[in-house]
Amino acid sequence: MARTVGIGHQDFAQVITKNNFYIDKTDFIKEWWENDDVVTLITRPRRFGKTLNMSMLEYFFSVDHAGRNDLFEHLSIWKEEKYQKLQGAYPVIFLSFANVKESSFPNTRQKLCQIITNLYNRYDFLLDGDLLNDKEKRLYQMVSADMEDYLASDSLDMLSGYLMRYYGKKVIILLDEYDTPMQEAYVHGYWDETVSFIRNLFNATFKTNPFLERAVMTGITRISKESVFSDLNNLSVITTASDLYADCFGFTQQEVWNALEEFGLSESKDKVRDWYDGFTFGQKSDIYNPWSIINYLKFRKFSPYWVNTSSNSLIDKLIREGSADLKIIMEELLSGKSLCTQIDEQIIFNQLEYSENAVWSLLLTTGYLRMAQLYIDKRGRETYKLVLTNYEVTLMFERMIKGWFMDFTPAYNNFIKALLMDDKKAMNAYMNQVALATFSYFDTGKHPSKKAEPERFYHGFVLGLTVDLAGRYSINSNRESGFGRYDVILEPLHDTAHAIILEFKVHDPDDEETLIDTAQEALKQIDRMRYSASLEAKGIAPERIRKYGFAFEGKTVLIR
Q1: What is the CA radius of gyration of the chain?
Q2: Residue 438 pLDDT greater than 80, yes or no
Q3: Which of 176, 421, 494, 553 is deepest in the core (most CB within 10 A)?
């Protein structure tokens, strides 16, 4: 009989004692212990079992759970007697920054300090007796949500020392979702203060802490060393490109096949692979998204479970406000093509607005892109071939792009209808409504550019066309054709439909007197540069090719 699938459980003991569906990942304990690294940082996409694995480490090592053999005796780790002796053998400090999602630094600082205060409250028994002297007891009681910076920085170091004295062993520190506060700080504009505060905390906790046995940190991204890890020279960083712990987070293909068999769903293997496969950690490919797999096992229907668990606000912002080139690459990725680029796994958040490589690095780290191939040249430089991870991720991007026009749906949809019906009067009316409402929406970064705004807008608009007309047209933009570069070509996927060429041109009073002249020049450019050549080469007759010139002046659009 198949086990019960419990959704959302992050407490290891609950999963085991209730006999919920669980894939044994206890070999992670052995692999981590035998690597003998002082501080280990592991980055994985969200909902990949990081918190459950950290809970597993706590239940295995913590003196608070000594004697809980029942949790492990049927699992892989219990096969070796030396690991049986490690169960419940160390004081463990376990904390999580997962819920630190504030819109200002003062609130973030206070919440971080409250998390530490809650830890101290758990160990109030340390105040009994003579373990701590009077000064230490006073310091202990000064730990609060509003404590001074010097005390906050040293608080986990101090607690480690108190616990070592009490138990006679150095402590293990587990910090889950370490990067959540910093992602929020970037989005809401208080990055520098947050980084300074956390850097000081990490330095005292993980570098200069003489009471530390070992530590594990997990997160989604590897924040650049210069930001928060500048003083940590004892850090072992495990990214998605690392071979260590490659199969400890997420489900392997064999684990998924076994689960499908247990639940009588073996016939759905191919579709499960298309929807939820595609993650690669180190040289281990065919890693599946565990959150979507367990939801599929429970509800027995295909749905974008993983991508629906987050607002994806940062990804949306980066692509929507990104350059025309970035949007063109997104068009290619959505059409099943690949991107070749260099990747820096150390995410430098303040580069995201002007470095496209940083954006692609973030999308790879967070699981929205996967590495299809790695090229290394003679000088040792690495180039990654990247594609969208799977169908679930593709669906997320399509919904995100549709959302750009959601508030303007009637006008946007009416423009699409008018375009397909060759109704230029209606096209002009509806396109101006959409442009007026959304123009600045595509260029609202810290350094908006009047020159870049039209390109950002119409390539965002083309992304919308790419999504809405998928299945009817293949849409390409800024490609070579004939004697030059066109802006957008809609190539019909069915013989009866017309092909469409759209040329966008910004009005320049030095070149054309009126907006009408600009639109006419755009049309002339289509013919002069023979943009229809690629369509005619595919057997599409000239009479089946429609041509439109779009002229922009501010937020005004004229179509001819």
Answers
A1: 28
A2: no
A3: 176
Confidence of residue 225 (pLDDT cuts 50, 70, 90): low
Q: Are 9 and 15 in contact (CB under 8 A)?
A: yes
Q: What is the mean pLDDT of the chain?
A: 89
Lookup: tokens for 129: 């007796």
| CA 71 – CA 14 distance, rounded (Å) | 9
Q: Residues 224, 175: contact at Cβ < 8 Å? A: no
Specify the pLDDT at position 350: 65
- Residue 201 has a pLDDT of 96
CA–CA dist 157, 147 (Å, integer): 15
| Closest alpha carbon to 281 in 48, 552, 519, 1 | 48
The whole-angstrom separation of Cα 180 and Cα 217 is 12
In sequence order, the 6+-apart residues with CB closer than 8 A to the CB of 398 are 334, 467, 470
Other C-beta atoms closer than 10 Å to the C-beta of 193 total 14
pLDDT digits (tens, 9 = 90+) for 387-397: 999 999 999 99
What is the side-by-side strand order in the sheet with 382-388? 339-341, 382-388, 369-376
**Greater pLDDT, 428 or 437:** 428
Integer CA distances (angstroms), 93 to 39, 129, 135, 158, in order: 14, 22, 23, 12
CA-nearest of 185, 188, 157 to 170 is 157
Question: What's the length of the chain?
Answer: 560
Residue 324 CA, chain-centre distance (Å), reads 21
Q: What distance in Å separates the CA atoms of residue 488 and residue 501, rounded to the nearest whole number?
A: 6
Cα dihedral value 296, 299, 300, 305, nearest 10: -30
The closest alpha carbon to 495, from 435, 541, 533, 455, belongs to 541
Q: DSSP states of 403-418 as a string?
A: HHTGGGHHHHHHHHHH
Please list, in sequence order, all residues whose beta carbon lies within 8 angstroms of the beta carbon of residue 459, skipping any fewer than 6 positions away: 324, 327, 328, 477
Spatial distance between the Cα atoms of 30 and 15, rounded to a whole number of angstroms = 20
CA nearest to 289, candidates 275, 300, 302: 275
Beta strands across the sheet bearing 556-559: 473-477, 488-492, 499-506, 545-553, 556-559
Q: pTM to 2 decimals?
A: 0.86
Give yes or no for residue 93 having a pLDDT over 80.
yes
